[in-house]
Amino acid sequence: MRTLTKIIGGLVLLLSMATAAMATPVDTYEFKSPENQKRGLSLAHELRCPQCQNQNLIDSNSPVARDLRLEVYKMVDEGKGDDEIIEFMTSRYGEFVLYKPKMETKTYILWLGPVGLLLLGLVIGFIFIRKQRIGGSTEAEISAEDQKALDALLKRDNK
Amino acid sequence: MKKLVLFIPLVIFLGMGVFLYKGLFLNPQKLDSALEGKPIPAFQLERLETPSEMITNEQLKGKVSLLNVWATWCPSCKYEHPFLVMLKRQNILPIYGINYRDERIPALEELKRQGDPYHTNIFDKDGRLGLDLGVYGAPESFIVDHKGIIRFRYAGPIDQRVWSETLYPMIQQLQAEAAKDGAA
């Protein structure tokens, strides 16, 4: 029991150290309210930095990301809606900054492709299994002539 | 019919192959500009050379022009600078500079030292115009038509190759359009 608590304690310590080691830039921005802060941070998490391209606005150190981050926070504090803020970003930097692309005609394949493939796989699997069941249960048919030839062969071997 | 069904996986594989092969040659760094086809964002900023003078987006209309985003802290800008100076001598189109997130005095000194390719410089100290243009680095250049519509964006330093292969043909086409509009 005691070893278990030790192990768990160790794990907790490790985890806390791991999170501490993930450095993200800190801004000294004062939100007007905790709700705004939550919304601002979650929005900035969902937007990609146009310069580094594989980090979101929160994690990125680039000056552009910092500006955009602060812009997002400011707009949140001004009471602008999520859609409005996202529109602000995409009208300047393109659809690229969205980690979650919008549902549009050109992104249908992105959203529906995986589901489509899964359905296709299921359909093919279903057909395959049905065929096997039906096909496997019928005995191989043999024509009368072949049967004669077979009998002849069997007789020859038995001699 | 049955034989054809057996070919379906091959067809799918080939289709995927073509798609992925194409993907090998895409440049992930190259982003489409969201602003092509849109007018220059509205702005009112000081002129770099004379702080008392204000420049607005209205002043960039009338002629096909090149907008060039630059700064003293940007090494690639220094690389492209001599080419821009040469362009200015050819007198093909006005080049407007956007001095992006920079300091006035060092910027002016740099122009004095290295030559000044710009018709006018817009002093975008806090990068607000840059943000509205969707700029995420320097140098970046925009080709703007005579109506003040952004027609092309190029991210990276301009050199002879980019100029003669991409930018110049487009500029000639736009200048022809502008001339037609002027005649009409």
TrEMBL record, chain B:
Highest rank taxon of the organism: Bacteria
Keywords: Cytochrome c-type biogenesis, Disulfide bond, Redox-active center
Alphabetical list of InterPro entries matching this protein: Periplasmic_diS_OxRdtase_DsbE (IPR004799), Redoxin (IPR013740), Thioredoxin-like_sf (IPR036249), Thioredoxin_CS (IPR017937), Thioredoxin_domain (IPR013766), Thioredoxin_ResA/DsbE_sf (IPR050553)
Primary localization: membrane
Stored Pfam families: Redoxin
Compartments, as annotated in UniProt: Cell inner membrane
All copies of domain Thioredoxin, residue ranges: 34-176
Topology within the bilayer: Single-pass membrane protein
Family classification: Belongs to the thioredoxin family. DsbE subfamily.
PANTHER family for this protein: THIOL:DISULFIDE INTERCHANGE PROTEIN DSBE
Name of this protein: DsbE family thiol:disulfide interchange protein
